Amino acid sequence: MNPQPTFISVPSDSAAGVLEDAWLANGSAGPDWYIVDDFFRKQGNIKRINDADENGQVYWLTAGEKCKTWNGVEHVLEWLVKNDVKRCETVAVVGAGTVLDTGLFAASIYQRGIQKWSIPTTLLAAVDAGIGGKNGVNFMGFKNYIGTITQPDLIALDFRVLETLSPQDVLNGWMEMAKHALIADAALWQSMKTFGSIPPIQEIHPIIAEATKIKKRIVEADEFESGRRKTLNFGHTVAHAL
Fold first, then answer.
1. What distance in Å separates the CA atoms of residue 138 and residue 141, rounded to the nearest whole number?
2. Can you tell me whether residue 219 is helix, strand or coil?
3. Which one of 192, 205, 235, 239 has the largest count of C-beta atoms within 10 Å of its C-beta?
4. CA 145, CA 126: separation in Å to the nearest integer?
5. Residue 75 contacts by C-beta under 8 Å, 6 or more apart in sequence?
6. Which residues of the chain have pLDDT under 50?
């Protein structure tokens, strides 16, 4: 089994800069390199990433299924090679599910694997793609056909980022949380049922925390999906087809 990642949750009342607690969580100076959802280049509100970009340390990746291809991975690998990224260095992958899939997969195969941090920025990614070490891309029309299962060294979730999400993005994550509850936690399901509509992020921090614990617990019990972890595929096959 791969070593389990350090998990950091940054509360919404943190006075530090966005994600700054995450960068400093393991006592280091932070990542050496960044693979980041292009959305944050347009926003420009994460100082550490802005500074890294000025130094040529950021690869901007446009989110979506089009980036989740072997060609997309090759572009990331070329960037790593051209920048002479060392195996002992760390790359932080910041974004939603498709960015995490592509960036973490590239990091897992570059020089047989470099240190990598998973920084999910949507609710769906926070409770699903950002946790578990499944990194992969689509190939020849098949979903997630090429990939690895390698755990990140650190997973960091900043609730202040989640609080900027649109209602549609919250809904996406809420449905994933409902799946977790249905397969593994009756008490969580009952808590979610008390809401008459999809609530704002500010009202469900504890529920989000419980949903992430479910994913972590199942992955730790069956990292390579030989048994129990298969339950996390509940609904996914049909949903991907749709």
1. 7
2. helix
3. 192
4. 22
5. none
6. none
- Torsion angle of alpha carbons 143, 152, 176, 159, nearest 10°? -140
Q: Find where tokens 């996390």 sit.
A: 232
185: Cβ contacts below 8 Å, ≥ 6 apart: 210, 214
Give the C-alpha separation, 232 to 242, whole Å. 18
Half-sphere exposure of 143 (CA within 13 A, CB side): 9
The model's pTM: 0.94
Residue 203, Ramachandran bin (φ over 0: left; ψ between -120 and 50: alpha; else beta): alpha
Residues 6+ apart with CB under 8 A from 61: 35, 36, 37, 38, 67, 72, 76, 95, 99, 102, 103
Q: What sign for the dihedral angle of Cα 87, 88, 94, 95?
A: positive
Query: What per-residue confidence (pLDDT) applies to 78?
Result: 98
CA distance 112 to 46: 30
59 beta partners? 35
- What local confidence, expressed as pLDDT, does residue 24 receive? 77
Q: How far apart are CA 106 and CA 198, in angstroms?
A: 35
| Token reading at 30 | 């932070």
Whole-angstrom distance, CA of residue 21 vs CA of residue 124? 21
